[in-house]
């Protein structure tokens, strides 16, 4: 299948795509190298103006539903597709996270007619991914083909807004409620975030809870996951992961003070809610899709894999990502806690109780234990702030007296 990789209305590169398996077979003429996806040139290519095929496939296939997605095998069978990557070809690679897409040769398609930001889209794929029986004629033009993550999710249009609906997993099916708890914590701490709410829908096995949030990407902006950013430069010997990320951000021309502050707040949040899965595709950066100017750190999103979501042992030690495997060690990477307002979190345990009370799978005792654990971990952060910030202030006062 001969296509042109497009960035909105800009022709970026000619490509040949295997329609059955979804991967890129060949890269042809590069029309606009500056608009190539972040991380497909640089350290991954000998020529900064042309990606190698492996690098471009890594980006392209990363747009597809992962093979680990719940019930994905049944969905592919219903759609008569070999791989999840084949699905992104059916929807022209269109997404609600960025402005890239593929235009088949001689198709006459244009961005204004096909993009999902301004046009309606089919809900057929989302329904199938949620386990519902397919229709006789399935419309595959949907952003659900380019939604990543292992939890079942689907896009919908509500009152003209694009919203993402996401389910839970395991015995507790706790992730949707965790997203709402994380929202409450971030609202109290004034951390820029994506706000999540709860949605309940009837299913064959009873009422199911889902998290729902409005898309924070617009038709003029796009999300660049941190994973794409760290692909722009090779990591140096003995260089820490966080140092490498920050070096890549600086090389790309981002405003570093804001980036460092935002990462501090994200890592602090992840400690408080015991987030186990803040991998490099679960946070990122926003840029203007037309001018390519960096806007800054994206609002914090996707915090559901937290609060001991899959274990009875609430309050126990859990692993962390992306920079350290140990939560305590990762918290030590925070450069400043001067912004942290412990008093703003008073009553967050009551927030937990109120939110989890809406669940049919989470007992009040578990909800109380989670609330207590959140308060306890917030107290540890506050003690760290005192230990670091107060001595610093005292030293400054002493130094001032000596000067006077």
Keywords:
404 residues, four-stranded antiparallel sheet, 11 strands, 12 helices, 34% helix, globular, alpha+beta
Outline of this structure?
34% of the residues lie in helices and 17% in strands. It has helices at 53-61, 72-79, 84-90, 111-114, 124-129, 175-189, 226-229, 241-252, 256-272, 327-331, 348-356, 364-403; strands at residues 2-7, 10-17, 24-30, 100-104, 153-158, 161-166, 196-203, 206-214, 221-225, 284-288, 294-297.
Overall geometry comes to globular
Radius of gyration from CA coordinates? 23 Å
- Stretches where pLDDT is under 50 for at least 5 consecutive residues are 399-404
Work out the helicity level: 25-40%
Largest sheet: 4 strands, antiparallel
**Cross-sheet strand order for the largest sheet:** 3-2-1-4
Distance between the termini: 76 Å
What is the structural class?
alpha+beta
> Helix and strand succession?
EEEHHHEHHEEHEEEHHHEEHHH
Strand content: 15-25%
Number of helices, where a helix is a run of at least 4 consecutive DSSP H or I residues: 12
Overall mean pLDDT: 92
Count the beta strands. 11
Written description of the protein model:
The chain is of the alpha+beta class and about 400 residues long. Helices cover about 35% and strands about 15% of the residues. The chain is built from 12 helices and 11 strands. It has helices spanning about 55-60, 70-80, 85-90, 110-115, 125-130, 175-190, 225-230, 240-250, 255-270, 325-330, 350-355, 365-404, and strands at about 1-5, 10-15, 25-30, 100-105, 155-160, 160-165, 195-205, 205-215, 220-225, 285-290, 295. A 4-stranded antiparallel beta sheet has the order 3-2-1-4, with helices on one face. A hairpin with a 2-residue loop joins β5 (about 155-160) and β6.
